[in-house]
Design goal:
Elements (H helix, E strand, L loop, with lengths): L3 E4 L2 E3 L5 E7 L8 E7 L6 E6 L5 E3 L7 E6 L4 E6 L8 E9 L2 E2 L7 E5 L2
């Protein structure tokens, strides 16, 4: 069964940066479109950014210009560079493979990002 493991979260002050990683347990990763999601307390999980297997990226408006999604297929790993963080970015961040924007792998445990002074 495919597993993903998210890491890199933490506590950061507003305006700070973090780099999240998503490691997949399978080389099938290389052929999959991938996505980052986040879930804030009391809210539904929401899509943050996507990257196709060819490297094309897309972002929700709230993170455009601040977040950068990327992938290293040789390492079966995806990244999310988050700059200029805001308190509203506080959430648990998850990754998954997607087909037509539907997630297809079991969810990992996520990584907590807290933006607070």
């Amino acid at each position: 069964q495919v597993r993903v493991a998210e890491s890199g979260g933490g506590l950061v002050q507003p305006g700070g940066s973090l780099r999240l990683s998503c490691a997949a347990s399978t080389t099938i990763f290389r052929s999959r479109d991938m996505a980052w999601y986040r879930q804030a307390p009391g809210k539904q999980r929401e899509l943050v950014a996507t990257v196709t297997n060819g490297g094309r990226t897309n972002y929700v408006d709230s993170v455009k210009g601040r977040f950068t999604i990327s992938r290293d297929n040789a390492k079966n790993t995806m990244y999310l560079q988050m700059n200029s963080l805001k308190p509203e970015d506080t959430a648990v961040y998850y990754c998954n493979a997607v087909i037509s924007m539907a997630t297809i792998w079991p969810w990992g445990q996520g990584t907590q990002v807290t933006v607070s002074s």
